[in-house]
Amino acid sequence: HKMGKKRNPRIVSRNEQLVPGITRLSRSASARAKAKYLHTKKGAKGKQTPKKVAAVTIREKFYPADDARRAIPSRKSHQKIVKLRKSITPGTVLILLAGRFRGKRVVFLKQLTSGLLLINGPFAINGVPLRRVNQAYVIATQTKVDVTKVDVAAINDEFFKKEETKKEEKKEIIETSEKKKNVLATSRKNAQEKVDAAMAPLVAAVPQLKQYLNAKFTLTKGQYPHAMSF
Length: 230
Fold this sequence. Notes:
By secondary structure, the protein is α+β, with helices and mostly antiparallel strands. The protein contains five helices and seven strands; from the N terminus they run ββαβββαββααα. The chain has a five-stranded antiparallel sheet. It has a two-stranded antiparallel sheet with strand order 1-2. It is elongated and about 105 Å long. 12% of the residues are buried.
C-alpha cells in the first residue's frame, strides 16, 4: 500500500469536509468559487459567441383616455372535421347513450361539417327525428341499412339553428308570463317526412329491422357493455 503525499497544513481548502462525504460548499457553489469558466474558450475555434442584447421598448407619451377594445382571436375558422370512427359508416344502426332519446336505436345518415353525426329514427318507427349527435355518445352496431337512395344533401348545420326572438317579443313574454310552445318550422316538417318516406321501404326490406329499431336498449344484472358484441 503506497502512502500519499502529506498535505501542507498551511494550505486551507475553501471547500473543507464537514463530515466524511459532505463538503461545506455544494457542487455548483464550488464551481462558482473556482471560476474555471473564465479561463475556457467559448464558441467554435475559440471565438466567443456574441451576446444577445434585449430589445428596448419605448413607451408612448400619448395614451388614449378610453380603453380601446381589442378583437379576441377566434378558433371557429380553424376547426377541423373530427375523424369518424371506422365502425360508423352511412347506414349503420347506432345506440344513443345520452340525451332525451338515450337507449334508442337510430340510423346514421352522414357526418356534418361541424363533426356531428346526422341521425334519424326514423321518426315514424321509434319517434326519433332528424338530430345531430356527438359520436362519443353512441355505440356502433354491426347492423346496417342501405341509405344510398336517401337524399340528405340539403340538411346541414344551418338546418338545426333556432330562430332568434326579438327583444320586444321577450318583453311581451315576461309581462304576460306565458310560455310559448315551440312550433316546428314547416321546412323541418317537410324534410322529416321526405327522409322518413325514403327510409320506410329500406327498413321494411330487412327482416325484423323495424322491431329492432323500435326496441329500446337496456342492460340487466350481470350484463356488461364492454363484454358484448353489437
